[in-house]
Amino acid sequence: MRVKRALLSVSDKTGIVDFARGLAELDVEIISTGGTASLLRSGGLRVIDVAAVTAQPEILGGRLKTLHPHIHGGILHDRGDEAHAAALAQHGIEDIDLVCANLLPFEQTAQRADATRQEALDHIDIGGSALIRGAARNHAYVVVVSSPRRYGDVLDALRASAGDVPAALRLDLAKAAFRLTAQYDAAVANYLAEQHDDLFPSFYAPFFEKVRDLRYGENPFQRAALYTQRGSLGPSVASADVLWGKELSYSNVVDLDSALRIVREFADPACAVIKHANPCGCAVADTPAAAFALAHGADPDAAFGCVLGFNRVVDVETAKAVAAPENFVECVLAPGFEPQALSALTSGQPWGKSVRLVKVEALDQPLGGRDRELLRVLGGVLLQEYDSRGVPSEGVRCVSTRNPDDGEMRDLEFAWMVAKHVRTNAVVIAKDRAVISVGAGQMSRVDAVRLAVTKAGERAVGAALACDAFIPFADSVDVAAAAGISSIVEPGGSRNDHEVIAAANAAGAVLVFTGMRHFRQG
Question: CA-CA-CA-CA torsion for 420, 422, 426, 428, nearest 10 degrees?
Answer without folding.
Answer: -80
